[in-house]
Amino acid sequence: MTVPVLTLTLLTIVVGTVLTFLSKERARFVALGTSVIFLLEVAGLLASYTAWPGPSGGSPGYAYLESYPWIHLSWLTINYTVGVDGISLVMVLLTAFLQVAVVIYSWGETNQPAAYFGLLLLTCLGCFGVFISLDILLFFLFWEAVLIPMFFLIGFWGGPRRRYAALKFFVYTHVASIVMLVGLLALVFYSGATSFDFASVYVAARGLSTSVQVFLFLALLFGFGVKFPIVPFHTWLPDAHVEAPTGASVLLAGLLLKLGGYGLIRWAVEVLPVGMSHLTWLLYVIAFAMIVWGSVVALAQRDLKRLVAYSSINHMGIVLLAIAVYSQLGLLAAVLLMFAHGVVSALLFMVSGSVHHTFGTRDISKLGGITPVTPFLATMVMVGSLASLGLPALISFPAEFTALLATWDRIGYWVVVPLVILVVTAAFYLWMMQRVLFGPKRNVPDHASDVPWFEAAAMGILVALIVVYGILPGFLVNVIVNSPVYGFPGFP
Amino acid sequence: MDTTFLATFTPELIVLAAALLVFLLDVLGVRRLETLGAVAVSATAIALLAVVADLGFAPLAILRTIPSGVVDAPLGPSLYGVTSLGLVFQGIFLTSAFLVSLASLSRPSEEKGGAVFFGLLLMATLGMLLAAVASDLIFLLLSVEITGIATYLLVGYTRRDARSLEAAMKFYIVGALSSALSFFGASLIFGAYGGTTFATLESATRVVGYPALALAGFALLIAGLGFKLTLVPFHAWAVDVYDGAPDDVSAFLAGGSKKIGIFAFFLVFVGPVVFAPVLGHWCAAGHCATITLRPTVELALGIVAVLTMTIGNLLALQQKEIKRLLAYSSISQAGYMLIGVAVGTAPALAGATLQVFAHVFLKAGAFLVVAAVLGLGVGPRVEDWRGLATKRPYLMFAFAVMLLGLAGIPLTVGFVSKFVLFSAAVQAEGWFVWLAVAGLLNSALSVFYYARVLKTVYLDPAPEDPTMAERLEAPIGWGRSAAIALAVGAIVVFGIDPALVLNGFQSAAVHFLQVGA
To answer: Do A185 and B436 make contact, defined as CB atoms within 8 angstroms?
Structure first.
């Protein structure tokens, strides 16, 4: 009997979340304690993860696998099954880092702090659950569990139009979840899988006809795509981001969008490769649309948060592009990019939040010359922007480079589209920095105080990640390629 | 023989005795609401334990009264027959009666008519219990009628409230009409087959087939029972009745007595218990042609199910009053349950049963919360509930759990029940997949109005009204608190571990389809 490490890790954060909800004024300490312990546990998982155990009887193998019976009827077999591979481990690592950072950043929250920190932890709990679930029902359960805390975070602590944004977020993502559930159920019953476990679904799906695979892939693409968010179902994202409190924005961009990407890789790409191969054109179209649209619309934004939100759509477009090329390199790039974007967008949303409560506005056209007044914040704006536009030695560079390389391998000169758009991305960030950081002072008091220590600390953690993994992406690469999918038959 | 006969009806006799005791106490001058309520609460609780024991729950074996050979025995000439699925439904009915009487202990003590309320509640429960053991069409319809008459009176028992009276009148007229339809249908069936016990019908249909007379009888039966179950197009009465009835009565109507209709549908249109040759997947050597009617009925019920879900939800979207919203949502839930009847396989029956089970806690619970909030003096419109969560966090948390459950959000029993039901439809293959798709789209649609209520309660600022703030401090009574807490507990516990009941439902459904085969 091996130790059920994943369940124990899950339990730590469950207990921590409950305690946070109950501990009123001291909630932030409990939340910080929980997230630090969680980070240490994840570090332990990562350290002891050496290699995936290899395929077992034709089905993929996963590390730290646990499986207990849950609902067993003659026609319905559902287990509580959890396990990880390199891809999910990297996503779990992202969850752990962002959780610590967001708890520290929100240290000064005074409006119902117990509920606020509890909901933050609950969101991370849901994400962690999604990343480790290898059973359809469990996966769906955690997937939906993310929705409710985020609804309340946006709706209660958000900006002036928070109620509208919260409702829109809830309805969009829930409708998508329903379609995803139909797809997953049909996947189980049409393929005649013996249980809802990933392994048995994976094996059974090999026997599905092409047309069924295409149909199922479409359902799953829509289901996961809305969280992604694929164009044209992205409109909830800017609203949700603009209205959400900074902490929620960070988790929304850093983690929730990654759920879409991860779900697509795990449950659609890995399970239905034939269906995907017939829809590659659609993925390219959507990816290009996201890249171009996100970037062009970002150019027109004056609100700092909206700008970052649209640039998120642009970056997630590159993730989708990397998934669409369907190669070992492409998959690596997609996961790396998701990690990179998770950290960078988290930093940028923190920066936007800090700019907002330091200067009372996020309007780029109203701000100017903040560098002499708040040098630390200005530095963070700069690091975040440079990382986002893909400066070498920062984390996005290796990821985007790999993605473009993989795209070149598959579609040749079409790679010019994302390349040109990268220049546009660089342009809007440089323009924003020029307006906000430098030039004459506008709407800036002579002696505004720089960001408080906790916000600085949270940003510092993220900057450290950006630099360390930017210089040494090999840490992540070695883990990612250590996944069963790299041994799947027929995976190019 | 006599003792077996009596033992078979233990839960019914307990409830009947309690009802008579309540009326007797009233005559003797004992009118304290708590005393009368205590009789109802304990009677339903004891009867519930007896039913659970009869289902074979080992720790309660000492309470077991029905000999094991009697349950799920093959159809005989008798008017009644105990099936394990029938026992499951008895348990569900008793649970709803128990929750409602427990909550009603907290009604204002000075209120008149306690005996009428609890007595009629018990009588209605008696009818429901009897329907669950029916093995004869007339027996079934008479049991439904007992419940019907008791509930017409329950809706109007306060007597002074014009809205309640109007609702009671409407309920009575519609109910009488639906009974007339059902009984007329039954008489046509009797004319066609020369008997009404399920055993007679089973053998007669095999010999006679289905003459036009019988088909007309079945059609009338669908309409008559459809009224009870609030199926579209027979649903219009439900909203006015649930809206006008006293709040606790609405809880009982929506969470409990309406479910009698779904079990009647199980008995008449699914069970090979009776109509296997007509409507079941029944096939004997060389006689497979006799199942031709089944697809037609499946299709008809499927269409009604989709219409009921969709229209219920679309109308719920437009409601501004909380009770009307819950009433329309209740109509749409009946549509989900009917999917189980249309699909008609053991998994689908188990799923529909779980849905009925879930609905007791979700819908009866929600109406009990509404009763509590209206009792505090808050208005009936959704907008009157603005920011209530800051004033009554625990009560509104319970309400949120119930609404999320009705919307089918995971970790609630409402999610699991829909999950199992829709999975069963997908698993049955054929065009039933589209029933699952329609059901899922409908649950997505329903999220709109549940989320809107949650948004109002949690996110909108509370109105500035000092007198209101003071009234909101008032306690809601321990009985009501306990009932709501029990419902929330059940929603979460069965949401996390549905296997606690689902295995039992599944095997009961399998037995149900085998009885008489």
So the answer is: yes
Supply the pTM of this predicted model: 0.86
Question: Coil, strand or helix: which one is B113?
Answer: coil
Q: A166 contacts in B (CB within 8 Å)? A: 455, 459
Going by DSSP bridges, is the β-strand pair A63-72/A77-84 parallel, antiparallel, or unpaired? antiparallel
State which residues form the domain around B73.
2-514
Whether the CB-CB separation of B460 and B386 falls below 8 Å is answered with yes
Q: List per-residue pLDDT tens for chain A, 492 residues long.
A: 578 889 999 999 999 999 998 887 888 999 999 999 999 999 999 988 876 666 666 667 788 888 898 888 888 889 999 999 889 999 999 999 999 999 999 998 888 888 999 999 999 999 999 999 999 999 998 998 898 899 999 988 988 888 889 988 988 888 888 889 888 988 998 888 888 999 889 889 988 999 999 999 999 999 999 988 888 888 888 889 889 999 999 999 999 999 999 999 999 999 999 999 999 999 999 999 999 999 989 888 888 899 999 999 999 999 999 999 989 899 999 999 999 999 999 999 999 999 988 888 888 888 888 888 888 999 999 999 999 988 888 999 999 999 999 999 888 888 888 888 888 888 888 988 888 888 888 877 777 788 899 999 999 999 999 999 999 998 899 889 888 888 787 777
Rounded to the nearest angstrom, the minimum Cα separation between A79 and chain B is 11
B455:A166 CB<8 A = yes
Query: Quick one: closest CA in A to B504, which residue?
Result: A73
CA distances from B232 to A304, B111, B238, B241, B313 (A): 51, 36, 11, 16, 12
The rounded distance, in Å, linking the Cα atoms of B336 and B329 is: 11
Note if the bond before B233 is cis, omega within 30 degrees.
yes
Q: Does B354 touch chain A (CB under 8 A)?
A: no
Residue A17 C-beta-side C-alpha neighbours within 13 Å:
18
Subunit contact A181:B410, Cβ cutoff 8 A: no
Cα first-last separation, chain A = 37
Residue pair A267/A219 in contact by the 8 Å Cβ criterion: no
**A155 contacts A163 by C-beta, under 8 angstroms:** yes
Residue of A nearest to B497 (CA): A70
Q: How many domains does chain B have?
A: 1
